[in-house]
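User: Um, what's this?
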Amino acid sequence: MEIAEIVGIVSGKVICGQEGVHARVSHAFSSDLLSDVLTINKVGILLITGVANLQTIRTAEMAEVSCILLVRNKKGKQEMM
């Protein structure tokens, strides 16, 4: 599924990385325990989380996550951009 499709389904908004909205993801992982994200054995997944801080970005980089979906009405902090 394309990231653009996911954004539409959840009535979301792309905060940064608009050039990648046509990228495809085949797997998603949901967790608020960022240490669990590091155990994922897939590349280029969609991370679904309610943790909206810089540590989320750092963890996603290490786990090779391609997209982060913030849920539970969380807003990304400026430092995350």
Q: What stands out?
A: The longest strand covers residues 46-49.
